[in-house]
Amino acid sequence: MQKKKAALERRSGCPLNASVEMLGDRWSLLILRDMMLRGYETFNEFLHSDEKIATNILADRLRRLESYGIVETEQDPSDGRKIIYTLTPKGIDLAPVLTEMVLWAARHEETGNQPLIRQMRTGKAELLDSVRERWDKLRRDRERLAGMRDEL
Amino acid sequence: MQKKKAALERRSGCPLNASVEMLGDRWSLLILRDMMLRGYETFNEFLHSDEKIATNILADRLRRLESYGIVETEQDPSDGRKIIYTLTPKGIDLAPVLTEMVLWAARHEETGNQPLIRQMRTGKAELLDSVRERWDKLRRDRERLAGMRDEL
What we know:
The structure is a homodimer of 152-residue chains. The first copy, chain A, is mainly alpha-helical. Chain A contains 9 helices and 2 strands, in the order H-H-H-H-H-E-E-H-H-H-H. In chain A, strands 1-2 form a two-stranded antiparallel sheet. The longest helix of chain A has 28 residues, at 124-151. The first copy, chain A, is globular, with a radius of gyration of 17 Å. The mean pLDDT of chain A is 89. At the A-B interface, helix 1, helix 2, helix 3 and helix 7 of A face helix 1, helix 2, helix 3 and helix 7 of B.
């Protein structure tokens, strides 16, 4: 039901419009990059990424990504005051979008991170598979750990 | 040289950052969709698209897309006061980005345009090829016409 309501509130029914309404800003995809490729998971880690996002914008974007079901939060088991951010399966499914944006910029602009680009060019499918596998494993481990804690 | 200068002015050297600095807003990709998939080419056509972009924002986005070399303009040969917007090869190369964003939203959100989504799911490579072919042909025809006009 929530899905339908959101759709009705959009500017149009076009799927591309749905994507840009959720992700069309200068920061959200960079936060997802930090999670997906760099393994960042705390507010502080995102805050110190190269592009220097402002604290209030970061807080707003994380809240929005969570409300869209792209990111989820949990308390750090070793420090209850700390929040850990992880990608949901919906968030992991954005890997092909990020990959195509990286490849496009690498083709047409002067950019850094050439090793990643070479890996994406020569083995896009393998890279996407490994990102998905790593994240699926991470999720399973987390759920198992949470289950063990509940039993204690 | 212009390419290098732009890179130095960016927030980071990351290729994904280059992409979101150029395309990370709620409108640019929709304008490119209108050109790529719907064949729109005039200011007025973009203005009347479903999402109802405001005149000043549309003017700003078209100017930016042109400055990035994604879109180019020419005078309409049949009406010198009218400007025609077309995709450059760099703009056409965004087709995979648009496709992945459409597929992601179609998978996780309630959206319209199911026929396009089915076509993208079952024949992504063929669809991308046909978009590229159509646009390449359009560009060649335009250049030939411009050459003929210059000779007259």
